[in-house]
Amino acid sequence: MTALDHLLLISAITVVIALLAGNRSFGGWLVTILYALQGAALLMMSGLGYSTLEVVQSSFRIVVLSEQLLWRFDALSWFFALITIGAGLFSSWFASGEWGRKYRDNGGNLRLFHGALALNVFSMLVLLASGDLLTLFIGWELVSWASFLIMALAGGKAFGYAMRYISYAFAGAMALLGGLLLIYAEVGSFDFQSLKEAAPQMQTSTLWLVVVLLTAGFGVKMAIVPFHLWQAKAYAETPGPGAAFLGAISSRMGLFAFIVVIVQLIGISRLVEMEIPFTFLSAQDLLAWIAVFTIIIPTYIALRQHDARRLLAWHGVGQTGYMLLGIVIANDLGSAGGLMHVFNYASYQAMLFMAVVAVMHRTGTSDLNKLGGLFTRMPLSYLAMLIGIIGLAGLPPMNGFVSKWLIYRSLIVDGSPLLFIGAVIGTLGTILSVYKLIHNIFLGQLRVEHVAVREAPLSMVIPMMLLAVVVFVTGYFPGLVLDWTSAVQASIGIPVLAHHLGGVSISGGLDMIWIVSVLLVGFGFGTLVFFLGGRSKRVHQLDNYAGGHFLTAETRYHYSDNFYPGLMHLIGPWYRNSFEWLERGVISAVDTFSTAMQGLYRNAHPSYLLLAAVVFALSWVIV
Amino acid sequence: MPFSELLVELLLMPILAFVIGLVMVLMMRRIGARIQRRVGPPVLQPIYDIIKLYSKETQISHGLMHEIGIIMAVGGYIAAETLLPVPGLDGLADKGGAVTLAYMLMIPALGMALGVGQCANPNGSIGISRALTAMLAYDIPFILVIFGASYVYGTTNLAEMISIQQQQGVSSWGIVQMPILAITALLILPAIMGKHPFEIYVAPSEIATGPMVEMSGKFMGGLFVMQCFQLYTAGVIFTTLFLGGGVYWITFLPKIFLVVAIPMSVAYLFPRYRTEDVLRLMWKWPMLLGLIGLAVVMK
């Protein structure tokens, strides 16, 4: 048995154990240990992440229609699998203690929750291991159904959102299947290698169709514009740590498949050759612009949310745009940035969701208008959220800055000012919206009913703190992650980024070891300057002056709703729900069509159909 | 360069920045006073102010984050100054270029925002909401300027930009190469510095209804120090991008003071803009000019 067999086997065992023992008090811990074992199995293959190992085959394979289905891991799969298992491990850890007990006591099915989570990890690993287009499709479908399972767990509203997801996923899968069949018709094989060899000779018109169908198929999972509507609500309503897991990695599977088929096999250079008629744009530009709109539109939708989980989930959609943008630019800087952003984003998004779930666990709400002042009550959750939002906003010293810096820098090298501005507009919107998030939950006025709130239990705080360490350390030493992305770049045939432990070794480069050190020393001097001043008297949190009025804690004056009135005054009218409108249009068109077809087949015309069939049969017999 | 020398540089750069920033604050006040036909403060007034603020008897802290916020505001600028090359001192210019600097400068803003948030004063939070909105307004044209300059000089390394302009003479200065972008930068400069006519988000003249409402004693003192750094940074960035930087302090100092003085002299003549008007203004003229300027330099 190879190392990959071990990994998949342990992952399958995890699913079984989770389904058997998930609702016991030790079940969660057992599953968490199994995730750690999966991680260990993955580390056995760590040569993949450092270019010392080319590929790890699985010994399990089947032959269907003279096509051999095979599963294997390369550097790209290893990188994504690392994030998947990491997200699974931390989410399961988070769910194993008090959160799980409370979930079960409130009538939730904890067994199904752990089972669904483990099934998600397993199906993602199967997808990541796919060695040809057919196994890719099988893995794709498994992942879709597994995510549906975990999304629908909460029932009620969540079920509706999950149904919406699965409708999108069906449409995406059909587009994907169409694209794959088209490739099969052209190439005559589902093999990766034969597609790679055939792609340069393929006719441009056929290739256009293939690229559009596949991008639509993968794009639905990534939730790129215009398929972005389903994701945020479906993820936000998933039970606690499940949302952290889905938010961190689930929709990255679309990006993985995109990289495999479009970047690795068809090749970005082929996309550059594909001109859009009557414009100056190529297919690559088109994808880059889709990525930029995927950054901007969801980010500014997030700005208007007043539910913490929705806000984070919408940012998740927006951050996908950065990854896609970096990868589509496909120079050494951009692709490294895009890939690194997958890792960085997963680390802080999981942590942010966990912090919000910890707050929900203690206060019972994630409504940004019903919280406030919790910093003094939940300082560690606050710290996790602070580190997370600095990462999400892409400011130094956290890891999010490095990946975004690489993407910005690649756009400067590429000479694309408008894409660059689009990316920056997204970042600025993110800063506005994450400040609102942390302010409305942790800063400002403490509500009287939250005076007795305590810090979240250790089983929830420890995973958050570990993730915080990951976010900070990979920001301090980005070379740790850049090693892996370089291995990926080498394996998918993109120029490899020259890097060192602290950052990038190019002219006008980046050395985060210096930047972060100088920032920390700066804070040290800032502290010194601060304590040079006279003694300050610390007043009680509820002792406030509030603009000249001596208000008691009972009066609610926390500034939370409509946080940016000036901005909304100007850009408010630009929110037109055009995509919602478009979605409704498509739904009613499909509805009308199916009603018409139903009428035709079932009610009005059975006799006509019979007649037509008889005429057809007779004519066939006679002629 | 030997390690010890670099450390001395890193220590020297923030100190110089602070001292020059103090003089800039003085100059700004003097200009304001002359325009309003007053005499203005004495030479040492900024120093007196800082000493006074730091040694106040009543200093109210609203909790740990309030204090950390001020530390982040000052410390972030101390760190950012080391990325900004000045004559004789390159510091960390080759370890992080213009883009890194632009994002480093948001750390102090974030620190201040978090500190104000902890104070639980709705007026403070409203002030931060305005400040962040204003940031969204001026940062987009600012990033256009950064992009244009990086494109023209072919690098994001600020020290390299200076040496290119120094070697090739005045005709290679940014202001000659990309005059439209220079005008754009000059237009947004007062907004970046938080000065007239875009100073409503700082609300210095009606403290009780702005972000500074809960800042007393050394908290206010910390923000004063931050303002010194802010003026200095704005002046040096503009000089580096457009006026050839400097090899000697004697030629460098007049440039940075001039850069800060121009918007100050003009700005006091205008009334203040509301936050949404700042947005409307910034997204209209500087943005338009910036895009035209980019189109010209990129052809």
- The total count of helices of chain B amounts to 12
Provide the helix percentage of chain B: over 70%
What is the oligomer described by this structure?
heterodimer
Strand content of chain B: under 5%
Described by strand count, sense and barrel closure, the largest sheet of chain A is: 3 strands, antiparallel
For the largest interface, the chains and their residue counts are: A-B, 75 and 88 residues
Along the chain, the helix and strand elements of chain B come as: HHEHHHHHHHHHH
**Shape type of chain A:** globular
How many whole angstroms does the radius of gyration of chain B measure? 19 Å
Stretches of chain A where pLDDT falls below 50 for ≥5 residues? none
Q: List low-confidence stretches of chain B.
A: none
C-alpha-based Rg of chain A, rounded: 26 Å
Total number of β-strand segments of chain B?
A: 1
* Helix count, DSSP H or I runs of 4 or more residues of chain A: 25
| Class by SSE composition of chain B | mainly alpha
Give the overall silhouette of chain B: globular
Major β-sheet strand ordering of chain A: 3-4-5
Number of strands of chain A: 6
Number of domains of chain B: 1
Q: Would you kindly provide a written description of the structure presented here, covering whatever features stand out?
A:
The complex is a heterodimer of chains A (623) and B (299). By secondary structure, chain A is mainly α. Chain A is built from 25 helices and 6 strands. Chain A has helices spanning 3-21, 27-44, 75-96, 98-105, 110-128, 133-152, 157-187, 192-198, 204-222, 229-236, 240-250, 252-266, 268-273, 283-302, 308-329, 332-363, 379-393, 399-414, 417-442, 458-476, 479-492, 512-532, 565-571, 578-604, 606-622; strands spanning 56-64, 67-73, 499-500, 503-504, 510-511, 537-538. In chain A, strands 3-4-5 form a 3-stranded antiparallel sheet. Chain A has a two-stranded antiparallel sheet with strand order 1-2. In chain A, β4 (503-504) and β5 (510-511) form a beta hairpin. In chain A, α1 packs antiparallel against α2 (27-44) and α3 runs antiparallel to α20. Chain A is globular. The mean pLDDT of chain B is 90. The termini of chain B are far apart. In chain B, α1 (3-35) crosses α3, α1 (3-35) crosses α10 (217-242) and α9 packs antiparallel against α10. Chain B contains 12 helices and 1 strand; from the N terminus they run ααβαααααααααα. Chain B is globular and about 55 Å long. Chain B has helices at residues 3-35, 45-54, 64-81, 98-104, 106-118, 122-153, 158-168, 174-177, 179-193, 217-242, 249-267, 275-298, and one strand at residues 60-61. The interface between A and B is large, with 75 and 88 residues.
